[in-house]
Design a protein that fits this description.
Blueprint lengths: L2 H41 L1 H8 L4 H26 L3 H31 L7 H4 L3 H36 L9 H25 L3
Length: 203
């Protein structure tokens, strides 16, 4: 193996290691929130159950389908570029971005509906409810809001990645950045799959 090839291999391995360390920190962050949710869920089981029924499960399921589909398009994009199909890779990246935007639009309308009903932290309406309901909605806005920020960051990241692919700065022989972006996007999708049953299917 030539010195140049060895350098590229080391850079690739280093980039992958860095991304996995970053993803681990994200898992720790959300893992802590999941533990906090579990503790309060155990303390206020009835309140969490009734509060979960107030959420729009249809929007929750639609958003799940959107993110699962976006994971598929992200995976196809990576495979396509590895096989030298730049056009298909860019098309799938664009589809992933559009699906992510659709997720955020759905979440916006869902939040607007709940806020319109007065169900948001420290609202006069919510203050009249039991402590468990207050805690449920506090966690709901915190966790889904943090997740939404990650989706938005992912959309920005994929937009830059698309530009780099278009400009041939990411190619079939040098696609570490695309793979790392894919890992981040898949993590965002997996986190949502955990959020769906915790809030929308709370029983």
């Amino acid at each position: 193996m030539s010195g140049e090839a060895q350098s590229v291999s080391k850079d690739y391995a280093g980039a992958k290691l860095g991304m996995w360390i970053f993803l681990f920190s994200e898992i720790v962050l959300f893992g802590g929130l999941f533990l906090l949710y579990s503790a309060y869920r155990a303390k206020y089981p009835a309140d969490f159950h009734h509060s979960g029924q107030e959420l729009n499960i249809i929007i929750g399921v639609v958003n799940t389908v959107l993110l699962i589909t976006s994971s598929l398009t992200m995976a196809v994009s990576i495979t396509a570029l590895q096989k030298g199909n730049k056009t298909l890779s860019l098309s799938c990246l664009a589809a992933t971005i559009v699906l992510g935007i659709a997720f955020l639009v759905n979440k916006y309308f869902e939040w607007r509906g709940e806020i319109g009903l007065g169900m948001y932290p420290n609202s006069p309406e919510l203050l009249n409810h039991p402590d468990g309901t207050k805690m449920f909605f506090g966690l709901y806005y915190s966790m889904t809001g943090l997740h939404g920020i990650h989706v938005f960051a992912g959309i920005i990241l994929l937009s830059f990645i698309s530009y780099f692919v278009y400009r041939n700065r990411i190619t079939a022989s040098d696609h570490a950045k695309l793979e790392n972006a894919g890992l981040y996007w898949h993590l965002v999708d997996v986190i949502w799959i955990f959020l769906l049953p915790l809030f929308y299917l709370a029983a």
